[in-house]
Amino acid sequence: MAKLKPWYDVVELREDLRENRPLDASEFAVHLDQIRDGRAGKDYTDPQRFFDRTYVTGSLLDLASQVARRLSGLQVETSAVFNMSTQFGGGKSHSLTALYHLAKNGAKANKWKGVDSITATANIKSVPEAAVAVFMGKEFDSLNGRGGEGEPRRFTPWGEIAWQLGGAKSFAVVEKHEKEFIEPKGDAIRAMLPKDRPALILMDEIISYASTYRAKGYGDRLYNFLDCLAETARGEKNVAVVVSIPASDLEYTPADAADEARFKKMLDRLGKAIMMSADTEIGEIIRRRLFESSGSQDEARKTAAAYTEWAIEHAQELAGIDPETVQSRFLAAYPFHPSVLSVFERKWASLPRFQRTRGVLRLLALWVAHNHQDEHRKATREPLITLGLAPLNNPVFRAALFEQLGSDALEVPVATDIIGKSDAHALRLDKEADDGVKKAQLHRKVATTIFFESNGGMSQGKADASVPEIRTAAFGPDANLADLEGVLEGLTATCYYLNSDKNRFRFGLTPNLNQILVSRRGAVQPKSVDERVRQQTQKLFDKQTGESSKYVDRKYWPARTNDVPNRAALTLVVMGLETNASDKKTMDLMEAIVRDCGSSGRTFKSALLFAAPDTADNVRTTVRDALAWEDIDDDEDTKKRLDDAQRKLLQRNLDNARRAADETLFRAYRHVFLLGKDNALRGLDLGQITSSSAGSITELILWELEKNDEITATVGPARLVKFWPSSLTEWPTKGARDAFYSSPQLPRLLNPDAIKRTIADGVTRGDLGYATKNADGRLKLQRFQESMLEAEVEISDDVFILKATDAVKLKEPPQLASLSVRPEHSRIKAGEQVAFTCSAQDQYGQPHPLALVMWSATGGSITSEGVFTAGAVSGLHAVRAEANGQQASVEVRVEAPQQKPETSNGEETVEELPAKLKIRWRGPVPTQKWMNFYTKVLTRFAGSSELKLEVSFEATVDREQAQSKADDTRTGLKELGLDDNVSVT
């Protein structure tokens, strides 16, 4: 859409409005007496200027053309007497002024704007110049009378009218009636009318005169005079009487109302009632009165076309859009939005003090003058003047507005909720809104529109603004209709005097629930807020909406490391609001929990997931609101003072507040921490999460971690084999399961029992073997390459899985694989004996039967039973055993015999032997024999207090697993109370 020009760049305001000079209501409310004696402004006393700024409406054209015909002596299609009926401020004074200038100026009026339409309608060449008399009931004083120097004093309406019509000559006819204060009858009236020219008698505000002088009987005399005047005029060819009786009974007494009815009945009988209305032409009237120039019609049409296209496109969402007439409505109202002009007719017309034309002109004059000022033009470039642009912050405009409403009782609601105070709710909401809403000032515009459309919410209790009416008046081609919902929610949740019911809104005088909320919110104690936060947080995380969340244990608000158990299962640790994600203390606490569980090191550190919140201010605010609404709902006395709509609103607000509290809590927990593959805590930001993102916050966290392969519901056998510990041949099923919760190299299993499915599938497919151990510690293959159900899998330290290659070995029958000779090392002297034994092992490291052993030796002899006798040659010799193609050998050291030492007397001495000897051994022990080594060897010395055992081990692992394995080793050593100095090279 082409960019539309702002209205102030198209039309030109009147000079006084451009300069923002204060305008009094009198600018639009002058009366005929002021015009007749020159006291009114030039806009009224200068006839050409008056008609330049007057739009000849249909009703004015009808009245003026009929009066012109009557003054011209034409009696067809006209009347001699006209009873003008208008609403208070409905344009009657303006119409009387037009008749006054036409009759006073005659043919000279032909050159004035709009007069040609009057003469054409009247079918005359020009309006004849006539004698004009004006009687204003509010001006004429019958006690003091009227008359200047050289003039007779006039105390009666007929005396005044006679004087204005024919001067001294006409006054002389009724002079006696004047003195006696007796109304003249037909003869006298005909005699006082001028004979050389037509006569026009204009009478306004006659009820005011009748009311003032009712006690003196002057009102009855005016009635009698007007009755005779009307009757007489009907008999004359070129006399017209135009009388205005206001329709407003704003300040009427019962006697005034009775008089009005009496006058109206009489005039309707003798003359013609004519309704002065400009409802459909108000736009043109306003343009003539407020603007020097209507500007470029092309720009006006372009703007009207753009708004028309938009309105037709959204007709189902707007109010009162007729595709056939909508463009003409926008053109007729330009530069105003049609809603600005129609709202006064649709909603304000029934207000007792509302002046339909005069009041609207007064308001709009102040309106455009204010909005035309430099600072306002810089702030907005609106193509049309809309209801939302009404300058409610201008005291003069606001005073004029309240005058039309009939009360300033809405001063506080306007200043508090819309504009007037710097912290007015609509203004504050705009400041806090996103850029689009803030720039458009939508909260202020919508609130101002509601104010006008709801008729102030005061004089008409049922008046309100519907959502379609708000859309129509406050939005346009460049606006996003979707913003309205959020704007209305913000206003209804914040404003103190805005009431809503079923998508209808109005401003009222009584403070609404929001103001009650403010006082109750201040009474909510911080302790209550903290308690509710914990309850709702736990409720949010405990909520189970999916299959996955039931497997996760939850632990809340840990303060110490042992508040979180050390177990092989996923555990979601929920940090409290006081431990937010950006706080270093929070990170320190989480790291301590991962590292330790009380005084012991934590084994299953990878099983831990941490949920930490953002800063808590917003959460506490929404929870405090929810508690305040609950307090109001529990207060029966307060609820009794509410009407049905407010009670329904209370329930909605309570429900919304609870949802808002849950939503802010949900959004706060966007930070997740877990152990990374580098064995350090790392954070994961879930982003701008909402409760609609997942069924529960726990489900959302699990879903995000599954997506990143940090958690898995299942794991294939091949993946298990890939992460097989290099130091293990058989892997306990419990150890395999626990690895998923102790090593960050592995994904975390969502369900610990899922490992059963992995093992069962692996056994069925032949990727894994399933084995146990017998009493001797020998592996026994139970299942391999055969169907296995997960229910058959046992998770235990005594049940093992093997790789396929090792399972195949176990599946083969045992056969001789190696021989062992004992003792392995012997030291004897020549001639001494030592018995050797030979044992056999199968391919699985288990004992194997041995039938015949062939023995051989060097450095001595050996029997078939393995008894070796040392020869005389000292040194290192070998004993060898052979059986079934296998052989094994050990070393024997033969020592030369020692000479016994002799004493000085030639006798042998006896060598004293030590009382204790030390037994030492060093050598590798196969992993399958660790337990047997303890049982068969070390237990022999377990009772000795001098047994010293020193273990040295070296294991080769993959680089990416080295650090994790070292950490796990240190943890195990700590649990045993041993030195945890482990090196990694």
Strand-helix topology:
Elements (H helix, E strand, L loop, with lengths): L11 E2 L1 H4 L13 H5 L5 H4 L1 H6 L5 H14 L9 E5 L6 H14 L9 H8 L8 E6 L20 H17 L1 H6 L5 H7 L6 E6 L1 H7 L5 H17 L4 E6 L9 H17 L1 E4 L6 H9 E3 L3 H17 L12 H8 L4 H11 L9 H14 L2 H6 L15 H11 L5 H8 L6 H8 L2 H6 L1 H12 L11 E2 H8 L8 H12 L3 E3 L3 E4 L5 H11 L2 H17 L10 E4 L14 E4 L9 H12 E2 L2 E2 L6 E5 L4 H18 L1 H5 L3 H25 L2 E5 L5 E5 L11 H11 L3 E2 L4 H6 L7 E3 H10 L5 E2 L4 H12 L2 E6 L5 E6 L14 E5 H8 L4 E7 L2 E5 L3 E3 L1 E6 L4 E2 L5 E4 L2 E3 L4 E4 L4 E9 L2 E10 L34 H7 L22 H17 L10
Parallel strand pairs: 2-5, 2-6, 3-4, 4-5, 11-12, 12-15, 18-20, 25-33
Antiparallel strand pairs: 1-7, 8-10, 9-10, 13-14, 15-16, 16-17, 19-23, 21-22, 21-23, 24-27, 26-31, 27-28, 29-32, 30-31, 32-33
Keywords: ATP-binding, Nucleotide-binding
Protein name: ATP-binding protein
Pfam family, one: DUF499
Q: Extract low-pLDDT stretches.
A: 456-461
Number of strands: 33
Instruction: Estimate the global geometry from the Cα principal axes.
Output: rod-shaped
> Sheet bearing the most strands, described?
5 strands, parallel
- Estimated helix fraction: 40-55%
Strand order of the largest sheet: 3-4-5-2-6
Q: Look at the structure and give the mean pLDDT.
A: 86
The DSSP helix count reads 39
How many domain regions?
5
Which structural class matches the secondary elements? Answer: alpha/beta
What's the end-to-end separation, in Å?
72 Å
What proportion strand? 5-15%
Radius of gyration: 55 Å
Query: What is the CATH topology of the largest domain?
Result: Rossmann fold
Top CATH class of the largest domain: Alpha Beta
CATH architecture of the largest domain: 3-Layer(aba) Sandwich
